[in-house]
Specification:
CATH architecture: 2-Layer Sandwich
Structural class: alpha+beta
Distance between the termini: 11 Å
Helix content: 25-40%
Largest sheet: 3 strands, antiparallel
Radius of gyration: 10 Å
Strand order of the largest sheet: 2-1-3
Strand content: 25-35%
CATH class: Alpha Beta
Order of helices and strands: EHEHE
Oligomer: single chain
CATH superfamily: Ribosomal protein L30/L7
Length: about 60
Amino acid sequence: MAKIRITQVKSKIGSNKVQKATIEALGIKKMNHSVEKEATPQVLGMVSKVSHLVKVEEI
C-alpha cells in the first residue's frame, strides 16, 4: 500500500464540526503540521472531505 503525506495548509476556523473532527482524526494538530498515513480507502475518503484544507503528497 502506498504512503501519503497530509499537510494542513489552510486554517480550520470557519469550517463545520465534521471537517474539524476529520482533521483531528487524521492526527493533524495545527497549521503546516504533516502526518504520514497508509493510502487506505478510509484515509482517502477522509482526505477528500477536507481536501480544501490540506495538501497531499505521495511518498
